[in-house]
Here is the input.
Amino acid sequence: MASMSALADQLPAGIVACDCLTPFGGADATAAALVANRRALQLTAVLGRDGGDQVPLALLGPMDETLPLRWLPALRGFAAGIPAGTWGTAREPVIVTSSNFGVGSLYAFMRDHDVRHMAHGNPFACVELLRREFGWGEQVHIFSHACVTAHLGLAHAARLLHAGLADRVLVFSFDFVSPFVAGGFHSLKILNGAMPAPYAVRETGSIGLGDGAAYAVLSREAAPFQIAAHAFYNEMFHFTSNQPEGTGFTVCAGLIAPTVRGRRVWVKGHGTGTLEAGRLEAEAFARDFPGAPLTGWKGSLGHTLGSCGLVELAITLAALRGGRIPGTVGGLAPSFTGSVALEPFACAGFDGAILTSNAFGGAHAAMLLTHD
Here is the structure.
């Protein structure tokens, strides 16, 4: 397919609050675990109770969908930390971003033939469940575009703020692994019996998958941390792969580069552990940001799919507050470029970070995070 689109937004938004939930806990606990080079991934049967090959998964509990939903108590407790607001109203809307929503419930229905699973098996029903659980109003927007989903939700929030259509926006993201999702990635052979080694030169690539949730409250008001710019590029090249010459990575890096304006930045890459995409990403950002360390954390947390952009934003903020940026957990030498940071490094001397995500079909996203 030859169709493609590119977009760069410079609509800064202050981050009023931000946190995430991973198997390590909240953002502070997760950042500390990553700095200590800990892995949440564990070899687990790919189809849960139905067995199958052992693959690397980072889970908050058994992944089989249950009644009541296995992930709802975790989200309920996590959402209790969101700052108070009239969320879901015209002036304080909610944006929900996810790849999975309740797709595991559809799989459970096909397995168990229990119609109760159908009550939350599609995105709209799943979000309606969350809206009732959390007491949100009806102004809830839904985004789902594979692994760039959270970036799109954050950019949409900034546009609402700068258009004067909202005072604050809550972006809420969640993705929990189910046998359906794990089995799908396993069928592509990128989820296999090996632990991911992001940006490493090796014979076979591999990824992990992980449970994750996150939220951010954004405002146009000044804040110590700010999302200063977004960039998007969609190659629409193939169902799963990127253009082999790396056009998408090159264009996205080039779109976000002018927004840096002389800042000294480091790069939080997508870094799943696949070979072609990892090489193309590392090379593109090394060209546009020479000397900027490149790191990625999916070698510990697994890929949280549509939520990864927001989960990893929350970890980035916690790492900046703690003064140490985690290295590429699970990474190995030799790496695709010399910019790959295999060990943690101090954030002193940096005044910005580029956070990237990439998705099936050649969708690419990057944002510039600035701080005082």
Remarks:
- The chain is about 30% helix and 25% strand.
- The CA atoms of residues 18 and 216 lie 4 Å apart.
- Residues 308-322 form the longest helix (15 residues).
